[in-house]
Amino acid sequence: MKKEYLFLGLAVTLLVIILFSNYWFLLDKDPIDKSAFGSMFGASSALFSGLAFLGLIYTIFLQMKELSLQRDELKLTREELHKSAEAHQNALNYQQQQAKSLERAAIINGYSVLLDALKERDKMCDFYKSKSENHEFDKAVIHNQIADLTKKLEAFIK
Questions:
Q1: Euclidean distance between CA atoms 155 and 158, whole angstroms
Q2: Distance between CA 13 and CA 73 in Å, rounded?
Q3: Under 8 Å between Cβ of 153 and 108
Q4: Per-residue pLDDT tens for 68-81?
Q5: Per-residue buried b or exposed e for 69-84, using 16+ beta carbons within 10 Å of the residue's own CB
Q6: Which tens digits make up the pLDDT trace of 36-49?
Q7: DSSP secondary structure string, 27-78?
Q8: pTM
Q9: CA 119 to CA 125: how far, in whole Å?
Q10: Integer Cα distance of 104 and 156 in angstroms
């Protein structure tokens, strides 16, 4: 960074020195000598103008090349974004399937817990049959509930 500033400072200083030396050199000359001195640089002026124009054309070609590369890069980026969107959609579909499977598993687990509870109640009826007057009625109700729940579970699984 300091080298750039040093180079710029030297270039500006040299330019100022050249301008002042030309002014000093031409200060005491008559207008004809000044005109001749200025005409001496006409060819170099045309040369530098032509070089500047060639530089401009070269810059335009460089910009065209850069724009072409940028278009290609944008095309590749668009394709990658499309692939990424497809991957996200596939992941979403998979998550939805997984959520449905988990929901099904939870429902089946709930039926299983209810069946286990009814079977445990059936065992309790056997244990307390001497204390209950409606022992056979309670047992029949429990067996009906177990049968109904088993049918619902089988229908859900299918």
A1: 5
A2: 44
A3: yes
A4: 999 999 999 999 99
A5: eeeeeeeeeeeeeeee
A6: 766 766 777 788 88
A7: TTS-HHHHHHHHHTTHHHHHHHHHHHHHHHHHHHHHHHHHHHHHHHHHHHHH
A8: 0.48
A9: 10
A10: 9
